[in-house]
């Protein structure tokens, strides 16, 4: 099993410790401390199978002890990895912190992921276990577990709920299992990248670096023990986990409210019932909430801050959000690899509307460069590079991708095109890489092309992003048929049946006789995608 490592040069690590960014805390210590400080305060509320669940900090802590004992009894040992795929239920927090307590490394997957993605995460992380729920919504995750078990070498599959032939996960508080003592510099968990090329890469985050990111985020966002954070987006995403997210809320002693759905009817009811003060949304959801608020009879008056991130919010929409929802807008621009930017709560309106914020840390280093890697003139657009106390220095088990994604001196090439204002705020102007930002979910063009090319009646495929008023961007696949042209509905079903998340299925498919925009072999795939996209947009606008 390849070791998990994330190492900063010693001179930088010393600086981050001296400046108090890294305080030697661990994820397990965090919850222990909060449970001791205010055991009877509410920690998390949510529902499962229609049943409301409400735990205090002491109750949440007791359940983490039970989870740690349960996974130890199943034979897992410190340092092993478990792929965790759970929806927004309170047990997400008890299970994850239970794994931290046992020294197990969670590998975070999203509820929308299917067999192809889960099997990839298992193999790439060398996971010994897979942990999921029995059912959520209309989907049976036990069937997914069976498919993953057949395709991988997993040792144990654990199910929250009706486990059937798999191992049941016991959350019943019982005898305490001894806590594994982690080093703050150890890798605490693995997140997944946006997957700009091919399948997602694994992002190792240490206790030190990640705790700093959400501790500082909680301060920037003004969280206190009286705050109530609504987790509306999938809980395993970096944004709702740490910006400030559920982890930042727990650090501040706040209440976390788990929303089973981000839809306005569900979320507005929770805001009214739990007096939610802050939440995070992606732009399409923000627009849906603004529209729904016009006719909603729910009391949203407790809402103080709505964060919008995951994709760029247009200035016009940004200007309307505060008045529509009766709260402040906070723009957030970040990535699971590290760097997070916020507009501040006391910023003037123009900064909040027109920018995506400035970095968390004084030691977040920003470079904006041209195609040759040279710095661009001040105020000009270019490729964003960054390094700092919570930005990783390399992906796990990616010897080919790491030299491309990181410079020799440790700057992460984000793939974003930005410009920086005179006062240090970033304005996001697009992406330099071939992926589609569909409602905040990053979809790799290359990955989807690969699946389409497996169809017997597809000769070639190119997937591009197109602007969409609701999703931000939608995916469009240009197909050159082989033999009898396949039907669009058949191609979509084919991609879905290959075990991919629904958000990766092309929204639109266009059949072409050939890719006449280029001579074969003379233009890169990236350039081919760009030309097809431009040609399609020009044609559709002219109609």
From TrEMBL:
Keywords: Ligase. Residues 447-522 form the AMP-binding enzyme C-terminal domain. GO terms for molecular function: acid-thiol ligase activity. It comes from the Bacteria. Pathway: Siderophore biosynthesis. Transmembrane segments: none annotated. Gene3D superfamilies: 3.30.300.30, 3.40.50.980, Luciferase, Domain 3. InterPro entries: AMP-bd_C, AMP-bd_C_sf, AMP-binding_CS, AMP-dep_synth/lig_dom, ATP-dep_AMP-bd_enzyme. Residues 32-396 form the AMP-dependent synthetase/ligase domain. SUPFAM superfamilies: Acetyl-CoA synthetase-like (SSF56801). This is 2,3-dihydroxybenzoate-AMP ligase.
């Amino acid at each position: 099993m390849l070791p998990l490592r994330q190492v900063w040069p010693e001179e930088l690590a010393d600086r981050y410790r001296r400046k108090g960014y890294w305080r030697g805390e661990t994820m397990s210590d965090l919850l222990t401390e909060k449970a001791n400080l205010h055991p009877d305060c509410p920690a998390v509320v949510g529902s499962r199978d229609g049943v409301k669940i409400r735990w205090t900090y002491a109750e949440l802590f007791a359940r983490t002890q039970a989870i740690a004992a349960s996974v130890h009894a199943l034979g897992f040992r410190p340092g092993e990895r478990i792929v965790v795929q759970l929806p927004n239920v309170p047990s997400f927090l008890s299970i994850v912190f239970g794994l931290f307590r046992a020294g197990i490394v969670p590998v975070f997957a999203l509820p929308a992921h299917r067999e192809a993605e889960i099997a990839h995460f298992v193999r790439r992380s060398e996971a010994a276990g897979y942990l999921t729920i029995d059912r959520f919504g209309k989907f049976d995750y036990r069937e997914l577990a069976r498919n993953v078990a057949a395709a991988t070498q997993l040792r144990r599959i654990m199910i929250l709920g009706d486990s059937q032939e798999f191992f049941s996960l016991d959350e019943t508080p019982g005898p305490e299992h001894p806590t594994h003592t982690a080093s703050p510099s150890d890798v605490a968990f693995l997140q997944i990248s946006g997957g700009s090329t091919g399948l997602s890469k694994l992002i190792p985050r240490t206790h030190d670096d990640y705790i700093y990111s959400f501790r500082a985020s909680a301060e920037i966002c003004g969280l206190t023990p009286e705050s109530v954070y609504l987790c509306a987006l999938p809980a395993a995403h970096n944004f709702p986990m740490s910006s400030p997210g559920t982890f930042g809320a727990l650090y501040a002693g706040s209440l976390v409210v788990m929303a089973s759905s981000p839809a306005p009817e569900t979320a507005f009811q929770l805001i009214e019932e739990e007096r939610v003060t802050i939440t995070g949304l992606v732009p399409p959801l923000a627009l849906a909430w603004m529209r729904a608020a016009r006719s909603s009879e729910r009391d949203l008056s407790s809402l103080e801050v709505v964060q919008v991130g995951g994709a760029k919010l247009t200035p016009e929409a940004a200007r309307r959000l505060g008045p529509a929802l009766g709260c402040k807008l906070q723009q957030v621009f970040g990535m699971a690899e590290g760097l997070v930017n916020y507009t501040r709560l006391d910023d003037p309106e123009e900064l909040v509307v027109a920018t995506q914020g400035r970095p968390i840390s004084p030691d977040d280093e920003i470079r904006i460069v041209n195609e040759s890697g040279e710095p661009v003139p001040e105020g000009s657009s270019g490729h964003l590079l960054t390094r700092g106390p919570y930005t990783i220095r390399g992906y796990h088990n990616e010897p080919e991708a790491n030299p491309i994604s990181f410079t020799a001196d440790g700057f992460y090439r984000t793939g974003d095109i930005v410009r920086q204002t005179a006062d240090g705020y970033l304005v996001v102007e697009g992406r330099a890489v071939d992926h589609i930002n569909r409602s905040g979910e990053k979809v790799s063009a290359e990955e989807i092309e690969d699946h389409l090319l497996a169809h017997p009646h597809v000769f070639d495929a190119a997937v591009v992003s197109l602007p969409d008023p609701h999703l931000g961007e939608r995916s469009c696949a240009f197909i050159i048929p082989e033999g009898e042209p396949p039907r669009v509905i058949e191609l979509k079903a084919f991609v879905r049946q290959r075990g991919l998340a629904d958000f990766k299925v092309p929204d639109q498919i266009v059949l072409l006789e050939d890719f006449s925009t280029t001579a074969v072999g003379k233009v890169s795939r990236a350039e081919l995608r760009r030309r097809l996209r431009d040609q399609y947009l020009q044609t559709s606008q002219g109609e």
